C-alpha cells in the first residue's frame, strides 16, 4: 500500500538534491554571489518574480540567463528604454491580406510569451510601459484588443535595476514593486571570488552552465513548496513582523508606508522554499531572519525624519526582526 507521507518525503529528498546541484551549477558561473543565487532560486521556487538591484558589472544579466539554462526555461530579454512601448513587450495585432484578397488580423506574440522574462533596467521605461507587465506578473495572462491570452507555464519575471544612475529613469510604482516577491540586492563580490572570476573569465575557456532541471520538475518543486508544513509559531512571528512594519505599528515613527498582505504571503512561500533548498522538511526562525530584508525592503519606505537621521531600510528591518523574535 502506498504511503502518501513516505512518497512526499521521497519526492522532497529527490528534488532537494536536484536543487542543490542547480545551486552549485550557478555558483560555478556567477562568482561570489551565493546569497543572490539562493534568493533568486527561492523566488523561482515560489512561482514569483524577482527584482535584482545592483550597479553595472555584477553579473545580473549572466545570472538570469544562467538560471534559465540550469532550470530548463525558455527565456527572453527586453532592454527597457524610455521609448519602449507596451506592444514591444506584449505583442501586437497586424492586418494580413490573403492571396484572394481576404483580410484578417493576426497576433504576433511579444517577448512576454516565454517562461523566464528578463526585464533589463526596468526603471528606464515609462510608467505606461511598466504597467503593461502588471497583468502578466499577477494573472499570468495579457489582454490585447479585448482578448485574454494565457502565458506559458511556469512564467517568471526577473527584472534588473541600477540604483546609482537615476538620470532618465522612472521610479517603479508601489503596486508594481509589491508584485515582486523579493528585492535581491546584488553587492560587490569578496576579494577571493573576484580573483577567481578574473582568472575564469578572461582566458579562452569561459565556464558555461548546463541544464540540471526541466520545467516540469520545477513545477513539481513549486507544488512541493506549497505542500510543505509551516509551524503556527512561525506564522505568528511573520504576522507580527509584517504588522509592525506598517504605519500605526511599533516603528510607525520611521515609516511613510509599509507592507500589505502580499508580504505575509511572500514570507509563507519563501520560508518553505528556503527550507527546501537547505534540505530541511520545514522552515525555521533562521529562514525568517535571512528573508526579512529581501521580502520587506521594497514594500516599505522611510519618512523624511528617518532618512535625515541616516537610518536605512535594511537597518530598520533588522531592528524589527530583533523586536519580533
Automatic annotation (TrEMBL):
Entry's Gene Ontology molecular function annotations: ATP binding; ATP hydrolysis activity
Annotated protein name in UniProt: MoxR family ATPase
Listed InterPro entries: ATPase_AAA-3, CbbQ/NirQ/NorQ/GpvN, ChlI/MoxR_AAA_lid, P-loop_NTPase
Domain of life: Bacteria
Classification via Pfam families: AAA_3 (PF07726), AAA_lid_2 (PF17863)
Domain annotation ChlI/MoxR AAA lid: ranges: 254-318
Span of domain ATPase AAA-3: 49-182
Annotated CDD domains: AAA
Amino acid at each position: 500500500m502506498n504511503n502518501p507521507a513516505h512518497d512526499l518525503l521521497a519526492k522532497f529528498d529527490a528534488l532537494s538534491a536536484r536543487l542543490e546541484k542547480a545551486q552549485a551549477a550557478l555558483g560555478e558561473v556567477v562568482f561570489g554571489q551565493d546569497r543572490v543565487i539562493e534568493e533568486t532560486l527561492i523566488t523561482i521556487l515560489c512561482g514569483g518574480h524577482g527584482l535584482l538591484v545592483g550597479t553595472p558589472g555584477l553579473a545580473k544579466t549572466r545570472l538570469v540567463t544562467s538560471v534559465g539554462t540550469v532550470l530548463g526555461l525558455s527565456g527572453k530579454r527586453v532592454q527597457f528604454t524610455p521609448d519602449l512601448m507596451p506592444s514591444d513587450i506584449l505583442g501586437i495585432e497586424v492586418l494580413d491580406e490573403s492571396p484572394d484578397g481576404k483580410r484578417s488580423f493576426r497576433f504576433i506574440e511579444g517577448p512576454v510569451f516565454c517562461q523566464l522574462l528578463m526585464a533589463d533596467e526596468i526603471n528606464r521605461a515609462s510608467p505606461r510601459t511598466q504597467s503593461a507587465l502588471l497583468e502578466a506578473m499577477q494573472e499570468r495572462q495579457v489582454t490585447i484588443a479585448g482578448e485574454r491570452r494565457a502565458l506559458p507555464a511556469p512564467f517568471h519575471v526577473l527584472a534588473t535595476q541600477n540604483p546609482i544612475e537615476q538620470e532618465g529613469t522612472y521610479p517603479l510604482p508601489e503596486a508594481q514593486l509589491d508584485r515582486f516577491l523579493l528585492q535581491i540586492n546584488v553587492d560587490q563580490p569578496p576579494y577571493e571570488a573576484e580573483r577567481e572570476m578574473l582568472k575564469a573569465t578572461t582566458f579562452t575557456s569561459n565556464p558555461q552552465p548546463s541544464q540540471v532541471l526541466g520545467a516540469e520538475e520545477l513545477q513539481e518543486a513549486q507544488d512541493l513548496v506549497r505542500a510543505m508544513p509551516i509551524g503556527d509559531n512561525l506564522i505568528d512571528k511573520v504576522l507580527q513582523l509584517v504588522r509592525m512594519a506598517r504605519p500605526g505599528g511599533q516603528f510607525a515613527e520611521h515609516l511613510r508606508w509599509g507592507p500589505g498582505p502580499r508580504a505575509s504571503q511572500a514570507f509563507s512561500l519563501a520560508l518553505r522554499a528556503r527550507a527546501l533548498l537547505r534540505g530541511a522538511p520545514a522552515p525555521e526562525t533562521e529562514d525568517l531572519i535571512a528573508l526579512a530584508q529581501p521580502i520587506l525592503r521594497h514594500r516599505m519606505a522611510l519618512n523624511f525624519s528617518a532618512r535625515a537621521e541616516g537610518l536605512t531600510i535594511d537597518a530598520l528591518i533588522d531592528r524589527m526582526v530583533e523586536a519580533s523574535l
